[in-house]
Automatic annotation (TrEMBL):
The lineage of its organism: Bacteria, Pseudomonadati, Bacteroidota, Flavobacteriia, Flavobacteriales. Residues 146-173 form a coiled coil. GO terms for biological process: cytochrome complex assembly. This is Thioredoxin domain-containing protein. PROSITE patterns: THIOREDOXIN_2 (PS51352). Residues 1-17 form the signal peptide.
Amino acid sequence: MKKILAFIFLISSFAQAQYTVNGTMYPTLKSDWVILYKIEGATQKFVQNSKIAIDTVTIQGKKQAIGKFSFTLPTNTKPGSYRVTYKLEEAGFVDFIFNKEDVSFSFNPNYGNQTVFFTASKENILYKSYLDKSSAAQQTLDSIQVVGLQNKSLNLNKEYKKALKQVNDIQKEYLETSNGMYVQPFIKASLKNNSSDILKTPEEYMSSMNNTFFNNIDFDNKTLLNSSFLISRITDYVFYINYSEDQETQQKLYKKSVDTVLSKIENITYKKDVIEFLVTQFESSMNLDLIDYLFETYYNKLPANIQDKNFKKAKQALFAAEVGRIAPDFSWKENGKELKLSKLDDAENYLLIFWSTTCSHCLNEVPQVHKFLKDNKKVKVVAFSLEKEAFGWNSFKKTLPNWHHVLGLNKWENKIARTYNIVSTPSYFILDANKKIIAKPEHLKDVKDFFTEK
């Protein structure tokens, strides 16, 4: 009997030592899986995955399908910021705080964090309540400020002071309520430094926002470092707060905001993660100037053991053949002579074509390019043919006289083709006399339009 009781006690203790994270989504998704990550720095680390179970509930008299999932966390699970991801092809996630308690929430998977509602977890319920109340109060204050900027004849000082007091009261209330809780650093860091008086000009307003944006954020706080909070604020500051419709001004603002952000980060590992994050963000808009700036000014100056050589190599390779870059160099033999792309000086512009005799589109387009440019003395074509063997190429190139012909064996695995990130043929690159890539036409029509306009 004693052994049985001890066994029951052991099982009971084990069960109580575990924590559960329960999620309910409505409507359901085609996907049947969810993944749980722990956010550490600017990265997320896999914890476990789970299946989405479909259930049926009655909503307003109609039966509706909902998705349910659950994660079981052991007693030694570290407190921190966690993320449930439920979409592969596009962003779809819900973030939450775990601090040694069960967590339950529901949400609309089409809007994720915007619709999450917590039903279990004191930490998350309190923080979500704070975000909702403070956001509503701040919007009221901001709307008064905007009206004041739009109509300077209005005296809105009284309304502004009242709204400001409401914001400050909410902040004070939740700071006191969250004392000793895991979420308090988030509440402290999200406090906005509003002006004590309504501001008179848009310039004054933007200056105040820029100068005080990070005032309450402690970039050394481990709780903030291991969450999505800092990355979210950095994103807002770099890509939304510092905005201009003028391209030249925008580039300057990007660099200035990047400088501001990185000057505040002392943690070398986190700084490295943030730089990599920013590089990836600028990659989506192909902003090579900012990517180069981040590498040259910051990443390359990090300790060698901190830098991710694979990341650096991959990004350098990815952008090696983009507009604005000097075309990656290569050499070949032509009529017994060794030629090099960088040394060519027989034209004002060069059209570099990656093609193949086994490509039907190429056999149609390349002769058309030859016919179109045959009388253009200012343009020289470098035809780089991707082949498995030389026989067909040796024959076909004779129909394209006065071009520079380069044989690239191993086809898709050819080293030069990989450097240029060639994934289809024909692929066109237009170079200036210095071999700088000035255009990457997608189609033959684009090639013709470029040289016709010139």
